[in-house]
Design goal:
The protein has 140 residues and is mainly beta. 4% of the residues lie in helices and 38% in strands.
Length: 140
């Protein structure tokens, strides 16, 4: 677990950039010089602004879920957590990001790295699923 803290999204301004079109991942193609459309990253990545937050990933427990140290995850608190989702959870005073696995008598928080054991949530834990991960912004 880590000392993750949410970053609040400022929706009063947008982050717009020119999109130059499609780039092929196969054989090269000639590039267009003219932008084809405007890309607003906030509108693209944030469906529910009042309930969406950014977190920076610390640690390596989710590397096999493509969440690497330094990446930014976008978390939406308005989405109902579902079995198998990646979510930011609050457990015993700390935030962590894990896959959520619901069972009839307990919940497991599963890391996406075999070096980490599952966390079994019991009645003794202070626990809440804080929000569901909707996007990962990769650090290059």
């Amino acid at each position: 677990m880590s000392d993750m803290k949410p970053y609040i999204i400022d929706t009063t301004s947008s982050l717009e950039a020119d999109m130059l079109g499609e780039v092929r991942a196969g054989f090269p193609s000639p590039a267009d010089d003219e932008p084809r459309e405007k890309l607003d990253l906030v509108k693209l990545l944030v469906r529910h602004p009042a309930s969406t937050f950014f977190f920076r990933v610390g640690g390596t427990s989710m590397v096999e879920a493509e969440m690497d140290e330094g990446d930014i995850i976008i978390v939406d608190r308005s989405i109902e957590p579902y079995n198998g989702c990646s979510a930011v959870c609050f457990i015993d005073g700390e935030f962590t990001v894990k896959r959520v696995e619901h069972h009839s008598d307990h919940t497991l928080l599963i890391a996406a790295n075999p070096k980490y054991r599952p966390i079994r949530i019991t009645a003794d834990n202070e626990f809440a699923i804080w929000g569901v991960v909707t996007y990962i912004i990769k650090k290059a």
